[in-house]
Design brief:
One of its GO terms (biological process) is iron-sulfur cluster assembly. The chain has one domain: Sandwich (Hypothetical Protein Aq_1857, Chain: A). 18% of the residues lie in helices and 36% in strands. By secondary structure, the protein is α/β, with parallel strands linked by helices.
Length: 118
């Protein structure tokens, strides 16, 4: 008999506690109830670059993947999800190399800045 994790535990985009706390702080400064849209676009040092921005929850499309973090929604379009499934989003406040970090199991190659991949 195999046991699967509850559906709420399975997320295509994972956020560490540090990343979630930082995103929630940034959202609070916006003064609105916003979700986080994560995706990819052509460009960057290695061919594809990550994109991440706040968005009004009313803009969530029926085809979007939505991941709930205790009421905070992380949204990704289906085309980007092909490249991002299993992505871990982390945040570091280190003086050198700090900021958001993307660990993408689908990336064959990443650039030195860590913001693009192929």
């Amino acid at each position: 008999m195999t046991t699967q994790a509850p559906q709420s535990q399975q997320r295509g985009i994972l956020m560490t506690d540090a990343a979630l706390q930082h995103v929630l702080q940034l959202r609070e400064k916006q003064g609105k109830d916003l979700c986080l849209r994560v995706g990819v676009r052509q460009g960057g040092c290695s061919g594809m670059s990550y994109m991440m921005d706040f968005e009004d929850p009313n803009n969530i499309q029926p085809t979007d993947e939505v991941f709930d973090y205790d009421g905070f929604k992380v949204v990704c379009d289906p085309k980007s999800m092909l490249y991002l499934y299993g992505l871990v989003l982390d945040y570091s406040d280190a003086m050198i190399g700090g900021g958001f970090q993307f660990t993408n199991p689908n990336a064959n190659q990443t650039c030195g800045c860590g913001k693009s991949f192929s």
